[in-house]
Design goal:
It is built from 7 helices and 14 strands. It is α+β, with helices and mostly antiparallel strands. The chain folds into 2 domains: 102 residues, Jelly Rolls, CATH 2.60.120; 166 residues, no CATH class.
Length: 310
């Protein structure tokens, strides 16, 4: 879309008739936010006509993929015959969840300390913000712990989407590009730590964790002693959930954001009109569309105030 010059503020009117399909009667130009001052839909026929009004962002948002780890309402695993559910291991998932919850502060501090250490070794270190990396680990620990305990994927799905704005923009790539690879490394390190945490053994017993990078919060243990099969099933699921988040950040599958219905099949009497928007109460961001669906006997008049974005 070509850039459109818009004064700081400009009044704009749109007058059009509908086609009987979903008509996008207005799209907010690039560099602009628009306030809908009024919207009038007039019924020019002699019979009652229904109308539906939608607002669309015209944006794409990420859709995390849980292929190979979750299907229907169960965690799954690959087998010779395809995929099988892991419902029989729900008890071990509960125990793994409890250990993650018990160590959420340890994971938080250790992941951030590791990331800070690696950043200091870099030839081009960035200004390190510990709280951001702490939150990466804490949010993921809480999400996976909840999903394991409840046999769901809802919190991990939300965690993966949290790396994007509501308009589908990758927050790390856009706001912290110099931290991109370090952020992904932090999630990988979280995965290594978690595998040992749910084993109820010291994380330094892992071949992937040679040392700790902080001593502010120590690892916690409980009385759970998982069998090899219990551990492997929980580890498989955690690895799959962490990789879902990482893959969403790196190579997101994008889908069109669903429009929001403002008015649904509201009838307009013959030779009458409908004014569904309260003046100044609807703001359309750059690229947002105002869609009206109804009979060709309906006409639309929009009055807008367009303001250039700073």
């Amino acid at each position: 879309m070509a850039n459109v010059f818009v004064p700081l503020n400009r009044f704009q009117s749109v007058v059009t008739s509908l086609t009987g399909e979903q008509d996008e009667v207005y799209v907010t130009p690039v560099g602009v936010s628009s306030i809908v001052l009024s919207a009038q839909i007039t019924n020019n026929s002699f019979v009652t006509q229904p109308v539906t009004i939608l607002v669309t962002s015209n944006r794409e948002i990420p859709l995390p993929s849980f292929e190979g780890v979750y299907s229907g309402s169960s965690f799954i695993s690959a087998s010779v015959g395809g995929f099988v559910t892991l419902d029989n291991f729900s008890g071990s998932f509960d125990s793994a969840s409890a250990l993650l919850a018990l160590n959420r502060q340890f994971l938080r501090k250790e992941v951030a300390a590791y990331s800070s250490f690696q950043n200091n070794l870099s030839e081009t270190p960035f200004v390190f913000t510990s709280s951001r990396f702490e939150n990466y680990a804490l949010d993921l620990a809480d999400a996976i712990s909840y999903d394991l305990d409840n046999n769901l994927k809802i919190r991990t799905d939300k965690a993966a989407k949290s790396y994007f704005t509501k308009n589908g923009i990758n927050i790390i790539k856009t706001n912290f590009p110099e931290e991109y690879s370090s952020s992904l490394d932090a999630l990988e390190y979280f995965n290594y730590l978690s595998q040992q945490v749910i084993k109820n053994q010291s994380v330094t017993a892992s071949q992937f964790v040679s040392r700790l990078y902080q001593n502010t919060v120590t690892q916690s243990f409980n009385s759970f002693s998982p069998t090899t099969l219990q551990f492997s099933s929980s580890a498989y699921v955690i690895n799959g959930l962490v990789n879902t988040v990482i893959n969403t950040i790196e190579n997101p599958t994008l889908i069109a954001q669903n429009p929001i219905q403002l008015v649904t099949n509201v009838t307009i009497p013959a030779a009458d009109s409908l004014s569904p928007v309260v003046a100044g109460k609807l703001v359309l961001e750059e690229g947002y569309g105002f869609i009206v669906s109804g009979s060709p006997d309906l006409s639309v008049i929009l009055s807008l105030l367009e303001s250039a974005n700073e």
